Amino acid sequence: MKLLVVGGGGREHAVIKKLKQNPEVTEIFALPGNGGISADASCINISAKDIPAIQAFAVENRIDYAVVTPDDPLVLGCVDALEAAGIPCFGPRADAAIIEGSKVFSKNLMKKYNIPTARFETFSSAEDALRYAEDAPLPMVIKADGLALGKGVIIADSREEARRAISDMMQFGKFGKSGEHVVIEEYLEGPEVSVLAFTDGKTLIPMVSSMDHKRALDGDEGLNTGGMGVVAPNPYYTKEIAERCMEEIFLPTIRAMNAEGRRFKGCLYFGLMITKNEPKVIEYNCRFGDPEAQVVLPLLESDLLTVMRAVTEEHLADTEVRFSDKHACCVILASKGYPEHYEKGFPLEIPESVQDKVYVAGAAVRDGRLVTNGGRVVGCTAIAETLSEAVRNAYKIADQVRFENKFCRRDIGAKAMAAKEA
Ligand code: AMP
Ligand code: GLY
What we know:
This protein has helices spanning 10-19, 51-60, 71-75, 78-84, 94-101, 103-112, 126-135, 159-171, 239-259, 293-296, 304-312, 387-400, 414-421, and strands at residues 2-7, 27-32, 42-43, 65-68, 89-90, 120-123, 140-144, 153-156, 182-186, 192-199, 204-206, 211-212, 215-217, 221-224, 229-232, 266-275, 278-285, 327-335, 358-360, 363-366, 369-372, 376-384, 406-407. By secondary structure, the chain is α+β, with helices and mostly antiparallel strands. It folds into four domains: 2-94, Rossmann fold (3-Layer(aba) Sandwich), CATH 3.40.50.20; 119-186, Dna Ligase, domain 1; 192-318, 2-Layer Sandwich (D-amino Acid Aminotransferase, Chain A, domain 1), CATH 3.30.470.20; 327-421, Glycinamide Ribonucleotide Synthetase, Chain A, domain 4, CATH 3.90.600. The strands form six sheets. Strands 12, 15, 18, 19, 22 and 23 form a six-stranded antiparallel β-sheet that branches. Strands 3-2-1-4-5 form a five-stranded parallel β-sheet, with helices on both faces. A hairpin with a 2-residue loop joins strand 20 (363-366) and strand 21. The longest helix has 21 residues, at 239-259. The mean pLDDT is 96. The protein binds adenosine monophosphate (AMP) and glycine.
């Protein structure tokens, strides 16, 4: 089978390494992939947002099955375009990907179908939003409606910050069209849990829960990033909470999307906050999380391609999806300065002995050598019987990967370990 994977980060590397385990797979193309992924797939220089070019490539190369993982192509209708060309795909169509593509849509969906989430108001005029922000309780959370590379959420502690965030989004076009509408919502407190789930629109099978570390620096200080590390499972996601999530959030979401005529098929990501023992939705993503995929997929014991095809063909109910009950930790190695300014182009050395545990996010091949080419450079994942051993081993792998200006958080998993002990 010839496969195509759209995207080119650590998440896509994790997906590709897992797909390769299926003996039927003869070739995998990554569009665009990256220098590190080229060890495992044929990387083709086509942007993940260039839907017509992706469609033409898939047809010309007689692709048997495609996996679309990043938010942009999903929201832009990449799955629709590939399906129209007769190519079966893993991933939601555009009409369902809107669950991530528009926060106004997802918040209204939750309100209409009584799915627990932070209280909110939506705005399409800056004047109305500014007026509302004068009286709303602080801190308040201001969110751009559309995709904004994870930067469209501002937690405003003061009225001044709230005013600035609203003006930046709605008057100065900081996030382009994504900021034309905003959601202002109540600030929630509690531990965050990420749960990814396979769903064919009828059956929903949650994957192992995980805990992302979004801030750049130790102790959850510094700027928000795409994610600096992740552990799985998440100790806050108890059996009791999991059962409540299934009944109050996961299944109602699938039913709501069906009722709206927007069947969701693919990986649905629930960003949850456990507030005073009550799980609430912080956000939906229409795809695997990154770096969450870099711990969850290595823990998957079933064949990924078989599960994905069952989603596409809508027979997930009779497909086994089994996860290991071990622990996983992924430490992200970034370029110093990320998520702001950083240098790239430094030689990147990944010793042979750790290559199967390293997912490459930002690298290029220059003059036959691997060099750094992004903010997040690699993810180092270890699996072990205990969380503390997984954390220790992930850092051992991280220490063996070499490049100039290498930077990582040193406390990935610390919060989870403290929660386990408490
Ligand atoms: P989002 O892109 O919606 O996931 O938001 C990014 C991050 O902002 C989340 O992971 C949370 O840490 C934080 N956040 C979002 N909404 C809220 C909220 N209502 N209360 C507190 N924190 C929030
Ligand atoms: N790690 C968060 C995300 O993928 O959106």
